[in-house]
Write a structure and sequence with these properties.
537 residues; alpha/beta; 6-stranded mixed sheet; 4-stranded antiparallel sheet; 16 strands; globular
Length: 537
């Protein structure tokens, strides 16, 4: 049960981000399906998910920095981190506007987090978002944000934060239902605005964060036939979407806005204090980037060709590839030797959806098998897969929960088989592999195996603590015995950077003496979160 409080303190901000990310993960595909404005490229829900994911990671980093102490971050730190994370991770037109909404809120909530500050924060957010859009259009997320702010302002003077948040949510939902009558393209398609629906989802998460109770979520029905497809640039409208972060002064950005407005449309420039996120649709992508270079220092440049095969514009893609998340450099090398494209998950730094999408693009294949190798990456990997599918890549996500499951899947990968047969074989191999890892307890706590003390060695099997020991060798042997009690043919050991080779020798001997016909294979994982990973097939 998430912590909640009737204010917008740091814990509430953290909970809000987490709940918003979960909600957008559930509703991402539905929002993508009604994306018809400003470009019917079916990615509004995914872009909002990416943006909130970046905001969430920034807030979690602030809390992680306080883990060694006894206090939580102050509200100002949390809201500023949320706004900064959204700014640097904003994707698409909708994500860029959401980033500015969060930045506007943060500017007020950093000074206080009661109901009155939330009211003023929502008003500031709606105004700043309109200012960021070169040519605001009614019937969009801007209309929904304004309605939310106005409804919050009408809440009773003595209303608490939860009541103000709920008023904003209801005002936004009412405005969302009216969008098909305000914007002709929505009315013709019979859908509400996709960005507006995403904002309603985010505000619903805010209500739950400060009250502990999720609001009822109902939306205008969407006809089953409405499934927008990417626009063909030949049918009208700019050919490219250009997005980049920019370090520049306010005056330089004012000149940049004017220049980009002449080059294209859907111009949104958000940010401040020297860091900006620039979004525009143009026919001349090079000119848009050049304008950024003249204004300051652009980086994280993303150029998307609407309606084109966006895997790679210059060379012929291969038929099939595997993209795998690995926890250390040792396994990275192993997987590369097997022909996989890898994404490194550094300790405490799980990859974001954008990194997985970039890896899929680097794989440069028509068909991709994605192995996340971590249960916590489920939503992240799903979002990346959906984005890649929208770009014309056939992606199969195999929900591997540990690196040893990914190794097992990669071992049976055969690109000459049909795609479906290959995915089935890899899924079966991963599913037949039990996984375990050793970890060091950081503090006294209750576990499934009893009470552990700080410094104890924990043996986790399939994600749950099953063994508590005093040293790594003893704990590893006990874990192996428990896993092999149910049978097995192959044990995989992945040693961390500081683990001596003698441990592998000792465990191999233990398996050889106690379990006939069970083979053992050992890999060096390099720098990874756990000193030892174990797989049993």
């Amino acid at each position: 049960m998430p912590q909640t409080a009737d204010d917008m303190g740091a814990v509430a901000v953290r909970t809000w981000c987490s709940l918003a990310l979960e909600a957008l993960g559930r509703e991402r595909e539905a929002i993508d399906a009604i994306n018809v404005y400003p470009v019917a490229d079916g990615d509004t829900g995914t872009n909002l998910y990416f943006t909130v994911e970046s905001a969430t990671q920034a807030v979690e980093a602030v809390f992680a920095a306080h883990e060694t102490g006894t206090t939580v971050p102050v509200a100002a730190d949390a809201v500023r981190a949320m706004a900064h994370g959204a700014l640097i991770g904003a994707r698409g037109n909708s994500g860029t506007i959401l980033a500015q909404l969060l930045r506007g809120m943060a500017g007020v909530l950093a000074d206080g987090h009661d109901a009155d500050h939330l009211r003023r924060a929502l008003t500031r957010a709606a105004a700043s978002a309109r200012q960021a859009v070169a040519h605001p259009v009614e019937g969009t997320v801007l209309t929904v944000a304004t309605a939310a702010a106005e409804a919050a302002g009408r809440a009773a003077d003595d209303a608490g934060t939860a009541a103000v948040a709920r008023a904003a949510y209801e005002g936004a939902r009412t405005a969302l239902e009216a969008t098909p009558g305000q914007l002709a393209v929505l009315g013709r398609a019979g859908v509400v605005d996709a960005g507006g629906r995403g904002l309603v989802t985010v505000l619903g998460a805010l209500v739950e964060a400060v009250s502990g109770r999720a609001p009822e979520r109902t939306y205008v029905a969407v006809p089953a036939a409405v499934v927008p497809v990417p626009q063909d640039c030949a049918e009208g409208g700019p050919a490219f979407e250009v997005i980049y972060l920019l370090e520049a002064t306010d005056n330089a950005v004012d000149r940049l806005r004017a220049r980009l407005d002449r080059l294209g449309d859907s111009l949104v420039v958000v940010g401040g204090d020297g860091l900006w996120n620039v979004h525009v649709h143009v026919d001349d992508a090079g000119a848009a980037v050049e304008a950024g270079v003249e204004a300051g220092r652009p980086y994280r440049i993303r150029i998307t060709h609407f309606g084109a095969d966006r895997v790679h514009p210059h060379t012929e893609p291969v038929q099939r590839a595997v993209v795998v998340v690995v926890p250390g450099d040792g396994l990275r090398g192993l997987c590369k030797e097997a022909g996989a494209t890898t994404v490194l998950a550094r300790p405490g730094e799980p990859p974001a959806s954008g990194e997985l999408v970039d890896a899929i693009r680097r794989a440069h294949a028509r068909e991709v098998v994605l192995l996340p190798n971590d249960a916590e990456l489920r939503h992240t990997a799903a979002a990346a897969a959906e984005q890649a599918r929208a770009e014309g890549v056939r992606v199969a996500l195999i929900p591997t929960r540990a690196a040893v499951q990914g190794i097992a899947a990669l071992a049976v990968h055969e690109p000459d088989r049909s795609f479906d047969e290959d995915v089935v074989a890899m899924t079966a191999a991963a599913g037949a592999t039990r996984y375990a890892e050793l970890a060091v307890a950081e503090r006294q706590s209750w576990t499934m195996a009893g009470i552990c003390q700080a410094g104890d060695i924990l043996g986790l099997i399939d994600g749950d603590v099953a063994v508590i020991g005093e040293d790594v060798p003893e704990t590893a042997r006990n874990v192996l015995d428990r896993m092999l009690a149910a049978g097995g043919e192959l044990v995989t050991l992945v040693l961390g950077e500081d683990v001596p080779d003698s441990l592998a020798d000792e465990l191999e001997e233990h398996v050889r003496e106690g379990y006939l016909a069970v083979d053992t294979v050992v890999y060096r994982g390099g720098l990874q979160c756990a000193p030892l990973l174990i797989g049993v097939e």
